[in-house]
Amino acid sequence: MHxxxxxxxxxxxxxxxxxxxxxxxxxxxxxxxxxxxxxxPHYLESAYEFYKKGTICENAKLIIHVQNIVVQCxxxxxxxxxxxxxxxxPKCGSNKLDVIDGEDMxxxxxxxx
Length: 113
Description:
Blueprint: H1 3-20, E1 26-34, H2 41-51, E2 61-67, E3 69-73, E4 79-82, E5 97-101, E6 105-112
Parallel strand pairs: 1-2
Antiparallel strand pairs: 1-6, 3-4, 3-5
């Protein structure tokens, strides 16, 4: 379960940012997880609930946005969002696609006080 190591790094990043901003507490962390990132949101939530105790994030809410796969077709140029791991252009049926979004995990917003 690599989600725990992700949470450990995420909490360390929060602590670093809070220190730089002279914040005493993190209120919320908002992250975006791509469907192709290899990160399972429910495991990430479980790891967060386990690890946050005794950290600056102890009372912080973890908000997760799952990013669908965004592709651009090299055949017709159409840009689409895929909600299944079916890599065919919805417009022309081509499998010549470039993935534009949905492969990464980002910390989008950090609310501190």
